[in-house]
Amino acid sequence: MSFQAIEASLRGRLEELNKRLDAIKADASQQHSADFAESASERENDEVIDALGNETQAEILQIRRTLESIAAGTYGTCSNCGDNIAEQRLLAMPQATLCLRCASDAE
Length: 107
Ligand SMILES: [Zn+2]
Known about the structure:
The chain has helices at 4-31, 39-72, 87-92, 100-106. The protein is elongated. Helices cover 70% and strands 0% of the residues. The chain has two domains: 1-75; 77-107, no CATH class. It has four helices and no strands. By secondary structure, it is mainly α. Bound molecules: zinc ion. The site of zinc ion has 8 residues, from α4. Zinc ion binds next to α4.
């Protein structure tokens, strides 16, 4: 099985996420120069920005791991039972590390 299409879409997503992270960081540094009177709401904003940033970073990390496993040739194998993960499942959920059976057992 070739994962070229999946790899291409993951790389596209990664680029998008990196841009988003840059935008989040730019927002965060901009807000620190705001008026002192706004510091309370500013702090709330920071928390939102942190949460967004963490979420984005977590997804970036997950995609990097997926790309690494494609490069290493271990992609598409269930991390629990070692079976091949169905192509349909990988196309729908490229970051899946469990086959459908193990995933439904885990739920
Ligand atoms: Zn499995």
